[in-house]
Design a protein that fits this description.
The protein is of the alpha/beta class. The chain has 21 helices and ten strands. The strands form two sheets. An eight-stranded parallel β-sheet has the order 2-9-8-7-6-5-4-3, sandwiched between helices. Helix 16 packs across helix 17. The longest helix has 17 residues. It is globular, with a radius of gyration of 22 Å. The model has no long low-confidence stretch (mean pLDDT about 95).
């Protein structure tokens, strides 16, 4: 096999979100970023997702300044990618079209080169405005399929959804396997179907929580997937993404040119271990897993054994054998054990690290197994929604309430009510009718149209709080509400003479 494979780095966004609950500061990220820029990735995912909220809520940082700082290093060398939650922007509920457009325009002008746009329900209507805005203001528009499993989420479902997103303006398609639950045999079928049905680059984004992500990345290289997201140790593996230190070895064994500077990656890795130590309070894996990994030291006989098994044929028996060998290789190298519960609960990496921290703060860490068992039940009742922000938080929180109260749905969160009423969009199948009836108030009906069509514009409102100093402040205020307001007010107090 000869050809090219391109890798994207997500260490400083989704990697640290999945491992350390998004607590990495700009200063900590900057200690590794120059090395990562030198490494030769196709893009660096540095912004978006939970970054903006975490900056103002936990880190006392301005996310716009973080973007500006990163762009000063990456400009002219590698594009910055941001993860955008479609009509929800970087927050947790749909926003008006004018706010979505202005946020995207400003982000592109401040340094974002690419947007990965997704919707938690795979409701294409929630991506329309975002894709149009990204293309209009000169960014690259990548649309993501939020991968999940259910009776309705078939390979044909994803192919048709990908075609619809391309029709809406997407320039490339990402398979967003946020929980790492794409079984290898399903991955082969999905990869081949998407390659056959489209003529744009296909990107694989997956996590290793359930122990299948790295093998899927290896299969993706064999099947001609164009780009693969990866992370650098110790913010790789486990609930994070396949480790680049391992993937480059498989790429080379397959005869693929990856174009990466291994020395730069190892320099970044060395720095990141120091950051890992600093963030130990937020890392459930800390002290149990991880050690430095040099691609040159990886056992090539084990690598060849995995590839030889795949050469025997792509069927369930051989893929199971390859999966066992891959999991064993990663465990021997110090990466976390896989968690089979994820196949049932479908909890994504970022949600898992946050859920563990939240239960610890509530002094109820022992109820995690019960919550994990409750999540699939809640997800079924709300129409088999994919679990990714914000649905992962909404479903996860409702599962926690169900366990703590001891009576299912005796308390229903407002966000869960919104999801049932269709205020986030159309669920894959209709939710439990009895639950819908419970949350509909007198005279209410389910939302039928695109959620943002019910929302009035906000940018033309003239009155602004006195702590809002410029347009970027105003965008944070409108999107993140009280948490942004507290940050901006505190900033102003600190700047006072």
């Amino acid at each position: 096999m000869a050809g090219i494979i391109r890798f994207n780095d997500v260490t400083l966004r989704d990697g640290q979100q999945s491992i350390a609950a998004t607590r990495m500061s700009t200063e900590q990220a900057m200690s590794a970023l120059p090395y990562i820029v030198e490494a030769g990735y196709s893009s660096l995912e540095l912004w978006g997702g939970a970054i903006l909220d975490s900056c103002v809520r936990f880190l006392d940082e301005n996310p716009w300044q973080r973007l500006e700082t990163f762009y000063a290093i990456t400009k002219g060398k590698v594009p910055i990618r941001a993860l955008l939650r479609g009509q929800n922007l970087f927050a947790y509920q749909p926003f008006s079209d004018d706010l979505v457009i202005e946020f995207i325009k400003t982000a592109i002008r401040e340094g974002v080169g690419e947007f990965r746009v997704f919707d938690a329900l795979n409701d294409w209507r929630n991506l329309q405005t975002s894709l149009l805005a990204v293309r209009t203001f000169g960014g690259k528009a990548e649309a993501a399929l939020s991968y999940t499993t259910s009776p309705v989420h078939t390979t044909e479902y994803y192919v048709q959804y990908a075609r619809k997103l391309l029709d809406e303006g997407a320039e490339q398609i990402a398979i967003k396997d946020m929980a790492g639950i794409l079984y290898p045999w399903d991955a082969v079928e999905l990869f081949r179907a998407l390659k056959a049905a489209t003529d744009v680059p296909i990107v694989l984004h997956t996590h290793d929580t359930a122990g299948v992500g790295t093998l899927n990345a290896i299969i993706a290289m064999r099947e001609g997937i164009d780009q693969i997201d990866s992370a650098i140790t110790p913010f790789a593996g486990g609930s994070s993404h396949p480790p680049i230190e391992v993937l480059v070895v498989f790429a080379e064994a397959l005869g693929l040119d990856h174009g990466l500077n291994i020395e730069a990656i190892l320099n970044a890795q060395s720095t990141l271990f120091g950051v890992f130590d600093d963030l130990s309070d937020f890392i459930p894996y800390y002290g149990k897993y991880y050690r430095p990994v040099n691609p040159a030291d990886i056992d090539r006989e084990k690598v060849d054994a995995i590839l030889n098994v795949l050469e025997e044929g792509i069927d369930r028996e051989t893929l199971e054998k390859a999966l066992d060998l891959t999991r064993s290789l990663l465990l021997d190298m110090g990466y976390p054990e896989h968690d089979n519960r994820i196949f049932e609960s479908q909890v994504p990496g970022g949600m898992l690290s946050n859920l563990q921290n939240q239960l610890l703060e509530m002094r109820q860490p022992d109820i995690l197994p019960e919550v994990m068992a409750e999540i699939p039940i809640v997800r079924r009742d709300v129409g088999y929604v994919p679990l990714v922000t914000p649905t992962s938080q909404i479903v996860g929180s409702q599962a926690v309430f169900n366990i703590i109260t001891g009576q299912r749905y005796s308390f229903i969160s407002e966000e869960f009510k919104m999801l049932l009423r269709g205020e986030f969009g159309k669920t894959p199948i209709p939710p439990n009718p009895a639950l819908v009836e419970m949350v509909l108030e007198d005279g209410q009906s389910l939302k039928k149209y695109r959620p943002a069509s019910y929302l009035l514009p906000v940018l033309e409102d003239i009155e602004r709080p006195d702590f809002v100093k410029d347009e970027k402040d105003y965008l944070l205020h409108l999107m993140l509400g009280p948490s942004a307001d507290q940050f901006l007010q505190k900033r102003n107090r600190g700047a006072a003479p």
